[in-house]
Amino acid sequence: MLFNSFEFLIFFPLVFVAYWLLNNNLKKQNILLLICSYVFYAWWDWRFLSLIIVSSLIDFTAGLQIFKAQTQRLRKRWLMVSLVANLGMLCMFKYYNFFAESFSDLMHAFGWQPNDLTLNIILPVGISFYTFQTLSYSIDIYRKEFKPTKDWVSFFTYIAFFPQLVAGPIERASNLLPQMEKRRAFKKEWFNAGVIQILVGLFRKIVIADTIGTYVDLVYGDVSLYNTTTIIIATFFYAFQIYYDFSGYSDIAIGTAKLLGFKFYQNFNIPYFSKSLTEFWRKWHMSLSYWLRDYLYIALGGSRKRIRITYRNLMLTMLLGGLWHGSSWNFIIWGGIHGTVLSLEKYLKTTGIINKFKRFGFLGYPITFIIVLFSWVFFRAQDLQSAGLAIKKIFQLDLSMPYIGDLNVMASSVFVLTIGVLFDLYLFNKKIDLEDFGANFSGVKMAVIATVIITLINLFYSSSNNFIYFQF
């Protein structure tokens, strides 16, 4: 079920009403949320519910066993059960064919023709997200940073909670699970803020991302047909398409949870207004960024050892972060670009060279954006060959007139993108978090804003696409 679908428009109000009618019974509320979350996921393919249930059962058991284990060896053994089970399922469904194809290509290079090793595997929606969520629970207990719950309903609901099940944010047990285990109160401020954030999220997805995505899909469908300026425009549009698509999803998820009395962590914080790539990753897909930092980068040693080890850790973290996004060399190269630049920034800061350029600090904004823009080419291209061709065409510097396509589509794209950027600029200048925007709006102001946004959504809605991050 999609947030931008007619089915969800029926589904969520029914859940909302039933949920608050059970306000005096926490257990029944959680059971309702668990059932509704499973229905929400099963709407896509009920067969893959078994993976979520098995993953939840393994980590619920592993968490309890790690906590009560008397020896370090036993604690590690139960942690390995969690790691092997979860990462095993993730690797099988998401990466098996990638490694099988890479192995076959390598053998071809040596003149050996192996049989086709790939399998007809369907990638379960959201597996990358809920796998990381369950892993963080077991790891936190192993690190003695969190105590396990004995309430299996609350735990299973925490894993499957439908607002964040399919594409995040990746919520830590330390934040969400305690909220599952205590009574929630309906708050008018949260209701207002949640409604506004949902509407903004729908606007970002349907009005902005889907509109500008039309041009992006056309150009990246076959980059060989277009010149430098056309590919640059398409890449520029894609940077905002993926931002408004994914931040829009996060907005709807956070707003929906807020209407049910839950507070998620912020997932995006106007990332394109960043003076460095380090700052960018503190603002982009923040739940993933901090997950990679806490459970991968720090586990590798972080910056506690020699500076070269730090560079290695940064690179490995970003390479694996790229692979997390998709089983393709495109994503690995994308991660490699970010890892290289992050290491360079660390070097400039460590050596003090960066201090010599403080007077030119304002140049950090365009430089960071250009680096991010360049890396998006690999993220969006259909395959490595297409990405290479796009990069080659960009550096040919053929600055002839770009292909515009449908003038109405281009005009609409520029118009809605301008609205989105101006709104972000307003939030940035006023230092306002969207999570709190609208909390104290009056009824009249809420009605006016809702009417304007819903009108624009109806004007631009035709058949809204899947969210981009569903493929990850």
Instruction: Compute the number of helices.
Output: 18
Q: How large, in whole angstroms, is the Cα Rg?
A: 23 Å
Report the mean per-residue pLDDT as an integer: 89
Overall, the morphology is globular
* SS class: mainly alpha
Q: Which spans of ≥5 residues are poorly predicted at pLDDT below 50? A: none
| Share of residues in helices | 55-70%
Protein model, in words:
It is built from 18 helices and no strands. The longest helix has 38 residues, at 72-109. The chain has 472 residues and is mainly α. Helix 10 packs across helix 16 and helix 14 (329-351) packs antiparallel against helix 15 (364-380). It has helices at 6-21, 26-45, 49-68, 72-109, 127-142, 152-160, 162-165, 173-180, 188-221, 228-259, 277-281, 286-297, 307-325, 329-351, 364-380, 384-395, 407-430, 443-460. Among the domains are: 6-184, no CATH class; 188-268 and 404-472, no CATH class.
What are its keywords?
mainly alpha, 472 residues, globular
Topology:
Elements: H1 6-21, H2 26-45, H3 49-68, H4 72-109, H5 127-142, H6 152-160, H7 162-165, H8 173-180, H9 188-221, H10 228-259, H11 277-281, H12 286-297, H13 307-325, H14 329-351, H15 364-380, H16 384-395, H17 407-430, H18 443-460
Explain briefly what this protein structure is.
The chain has 472 residues and is mainly alpha-helical.
